[in-house]
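User: Sequence recovery, please. Input:
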């Protein structure tokens, strides 16, 4: 499987600084997106530390382990790396008064051939467009999601709730954190979107799906998503990472020749 990856970030229309951070490593197909916590000090420091640390440490492990690491090994390496990043941010917050209480959400994915190992903390999301169907494949760690799960409010009521930005997990806020890690099967033609809530709070899922399913390159689609969030008010920083999976044409050609087709 070949992966094409594109990122874009924007401060939005009402924030002076950008507390989001997003990056990917083409060699290992490691993708990372973090949203510094609104209302906390130095959220941009926390998100920047998270992305830099995980890109360096997880990227190094993936380079050394090679493409043959099994799912269990990748999962455990991801968990350890996120745990170490949490300690780094937490210790920095406790060593520097200006960083007290800083934290960040996180989405991190490792694409390996036909598999995605996906970890997340907080309410930054990952969606998958398969065919014409858009599915959110992460579940928010938020008070709002807990209220929905408990049947206290409906998903429709959640759209206008005042509790949208209250997360129940964040990286760097406490000395330990639980990252949720799930494995997903990747099919040729899948399009994955990682995003901060600056997009998902401003653009409803049907609007996101329409842009992803429409014409254009990944770069164009990423800019269209940012523009849509800003047109809706741009009340927060907006970050997106798009990853498109397609079959390796060279391998497909070799298989066809072997099968005499």
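Assistant: Recovered sequence (261 residues):
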């Amino acid at each position: 499987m070949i992966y094409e990856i594109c990122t874009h970030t924007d401060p939005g229309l009402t924030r002076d600084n950008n507390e989001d951070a997003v990056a990917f490593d083409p060699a290992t197909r490691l993708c990372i997106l973090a949203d510094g916590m609104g209302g906390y000090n130095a959220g941009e420091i926390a998100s920047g530390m998270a992305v830099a640390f995980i890109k360096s440490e997880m990227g190094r492990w993936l380079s050394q382990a090679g493409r043959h690491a099994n799912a269990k090994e990748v999962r455990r390496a991801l968990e350890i790396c996120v745990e170490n990043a949490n300690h780094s941010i937490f210790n920095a917050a406790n060593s520097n008064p200006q960083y007290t209480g800083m934290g960040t959400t996180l989405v991190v994915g490792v694409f390996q051939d036909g598999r995605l190992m996906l970890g997340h903390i907080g309410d930054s999301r990952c969606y998958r467009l398969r065919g014409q169907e858009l599915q959110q494949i992460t579940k928010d760690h938020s008070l709002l999601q807990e209220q929905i799960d408990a049947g206290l409010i409906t998903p429709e009521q959640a759209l206008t709730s005042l509790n949208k930005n209250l997360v129940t997990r964040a990286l760097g806020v406490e000395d330990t954190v639980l990252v949720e890690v799930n494995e997903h099967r990747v099919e040729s033609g899948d399009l994955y979107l990682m995003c901060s809530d600056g997009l998902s709070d401003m653009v409803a899922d049907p609007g996101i799906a329409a842009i992803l399913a429409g014409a254009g390159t990944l770069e164009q689609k990423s800019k269209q998503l940012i523009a849509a969030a800003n047109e809706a008010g741009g009340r927060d920083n907006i970050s997106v990472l798009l990853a498109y999976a397609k079959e390796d044409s060279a391998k497909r050609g070799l298989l066809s020749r072997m099968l005499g087709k």
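The first strand starts at residue 2 and ends at 10.
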